């Protein structure tokens, strides 16, 4: 599966939406015009490093998470609050492909957890059986 790499503008847009921020609100926090933020999100203008630093602080992620952001790691490193996504899934992001990718990622993580629980349960059962057999031999 290919992991889409996002431009800086796409990262601004998607992370802003994932964090539930409106353009006007974020532009005010960043002390820039809403039109400037729109141009950044549409890759018409490249933000300077100091603006990226303000952006990551405003949405509460690390600079590393900003630059590592991709479709395959949306749920990792506290980029996304999964309860917010479940409650507001239509408000988080308007890109249907991203929403489907988020749902797929969450389903995969749930399947991984279920498999782990099943494997642990089977191992516990095996250990219980071995313990019973050992007790019976001692009698």
What does this structure look like?
This protein is mainly α and 139 residues long. The chain has one domain (8-138): Orthogonal Bundle (434 Repressor (Amino-terminal Domain)). 70% of the residues lie in helices and 0% in strands. It has helices spanning 8-18, 23-30, 34-41, 49-59, 63-68, 82-87, 89-92, 96-138. Helix 2 (23-30) packs across helix 3 (34-41). The longest helix has 43 residues, at 96-138. The model is unreliable at 80-94 (pLDDT under 50).
Largest sheet: none
CATH top level is: Mainly Alpha
Q: Could you give the order of the helices and strands?
A: HHHHHHHH
Q: Count of DSSP helices?
A: 8
How would the global form be characterised? rod-shaped
Please name the fourth-level CATH homologous superfamily. lambda repressor-like DNA-binding domains
What are the segments in which pLDDT stays under 50 over at least 5 consecutive residues?
80-94
What's this entry about, in short?
By secondary structure, the chain is an all-alpha fold. The chain has eight helices and no strands.
Top keywords for this entry?
single chain; 139 residues; 434 Repressor (Amino-terminal Domain)
Can you lay out the helices and strands and say which pair or pack?
Blueprint: H1 8-18, H2 23-30, H3 34-41, H4 49-59, H5 63-68, H6 82-87, H7 89-92, H8 96-138
């Amino acid at each position: 599966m290919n992991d889409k790499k996002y431009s800086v503008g796409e990262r601004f847009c998607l992370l802003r939406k994932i964090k539930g921020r409106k353009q006007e609100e974020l532009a005010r926090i960043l002390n820039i015009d809403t039109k400037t933020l729109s141009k950044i999100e549409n890759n018409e203008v490249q933000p300077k490093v100091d603006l990226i630093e303000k952006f990551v602080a405003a949405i509460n992620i690390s600079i590393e998470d900003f630059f590592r952001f991709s479709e395959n790691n949306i749920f990792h490193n506290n980029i996304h609050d999964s309860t917010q996504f479940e409650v507001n899934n239509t408000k988080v992001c308007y890109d249907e492909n991203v929403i489907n990718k988020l749902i797929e990622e969450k389903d995969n993580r749930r399947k991984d957890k279920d498999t782990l629980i099943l494997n642990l349960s089977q191992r516990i059962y095996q250990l219980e059986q071995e313990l019973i057999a050992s007790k019976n031999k001692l009698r």
